[in-house]
Amino acid sequence: MNRELGDGFLESLMVSLQDERVIEKIKAIAEAGSFNQMGEYKELLKEKEKEIARLQQEIESKKEEISEYQIKITHLNGKMEAYFAELQKRRADYREAEELYEAVQQLSQSTKSSLKGIFKGGSVQEFIVCGVQYENISSLWDFIKNEIMEGREQEREILLALFLYFFQEYSKTYETPLYRIQQVKMNEVFREDLYIRALNSKISGNITDILLPGYISINGKTIKKSVVRI
Could you tell me the pTM of the whole model? Predict the structure, then answer.
């Protein structure tokens, strides 16, 4: 009996499906479902487009940040290189000061005693602090000159290196140095108003040796005449 009912239902259904009104209704339902589904897809697509736009804005913002950081890094690298170069220079200057300090320790006892009034203390740091003071540079120059004029030139090379080093270091403390080394040319005719004639020199003639360079002020005034041999 159930089979008969089932067969009847199927026959009725098949007949209904052939009815144009039913067919149209089914189409309308199918189209409505498709439309709703399409609408959902469109909404989802809009959301994704908004998300993509937001992410693109974030990417652009991050790119700008990265660009700013790169500029800062370049600037900092430049500063670091400048600091490193300055540090290397200072190390080189300090090494030179250390070498000169050690050289001074090898000078004769009489010379070291004479320099005690110029270089006080017993460390490289104190040696540098004393050496860059103008009064001490001037006194050192006078001492070297007196040694040369009295014929004591055995230690002149060390003393001259000492003077030139601290003269240069003192000059660095000013944007425009107050003094500069006097320019003397070999074989130049000796002039008493410019130079000092050293021991064992001729009365006149051409300069054959520069024993101690003098220095002049920024306006050209001679402060210390160079000691030369004729």
Answer: 0.64
